[in-house]
Amino acid sequence: MLHYLYIIKGVQKKEKKSQMAFYDLFYKPVYQSAYAITGNRDEAEEIMHDTLLKVYSNTGLLHDDIGSMTRRLRRIAVNQAIDLLRKRKEWMVSLEDDMESDIEDETDENGEEYNLSVDDIKVGISRLSNAYKHIITLRLFEEMSFADIAGQLKINASTARVQYQRGILKLRKLLKHQIYAYD
User: How far apart, in whole angstroms, are the C-alpha atoms of residue 95 and residue 89?
Assistant: First the structure.
């Protein structure tokens, strides 16, 4: 903790060595948050750099607690990623889209349960439409409430909830097909 406080003081003084140490501490979680939303490595890297540069230029954003700083940086990265998606208008699915067979049993015909890894689930999420992918990512990996998601995406909280539920149903369907493909 003492080492972290020295880094913070150095960043406040705009010392290059401290800025590099700060970068080394935080680039991975910031990049992961941005990538989880955008799904694009180049965009996530750019968002990560912009997030860290924002802190370097506005040292008032610095926090003495490393956990709080990580959460603050992740939030900045998520906000920037959502802004990017808004510009591309990929963050929302019309409520009329994909209505055909969204509702399906949550267990398979035999009542079997499957053990899936986080990587299996991430692969499944990556196959969803962008709107579902973004809402599920914000909810599951960024642990945002529906109210927070709605605020970020500038949509109604009930719309966020409905799209999340539809996305989860589609994800289950994809994972089910993935499991059967392995058998």
Answer: 15
∠ CA 71-164-183, rounded to 5°: 105
State the DSSP code for 50. H
Distance CA 12, CA 43 (A): 27
- 3 state DSSP class of 127: coil
Asked whether 153 and 66 are in contact (CB, 8 A), the reply is no
Interatomic CA distance for residues 28 and 26, integer angstroms: 6
Tokens representing residue 102 in the block: 């969204």
d(CA 98, CA 168): 13
Q: Structure pTM?
A: 0.60
**In 5-127, beta strands by DSSP E:** none
**What's the Cα-to-Cα distance from 163 to each of 10, 22, 171, rounded to whole Å?**
44, 37, 12
Sequence-distant (6+) residues with CB within 8 A of 180 are none
| HSE, side-chain direction, 13 A CA sphere, residue 140 | 17
Task: Find how far residue 16's CA is from the centre of its chain.
Answer: 29
- The whole-angstrom separation of Cα 164 and Cα 136 is 6
Cα distance between residue 77 and residue 34, in whole Å: 6
Digit-coded pLDDT (tens) for 99-131: 333 333 334 444 455 566 777 777 888 888 888
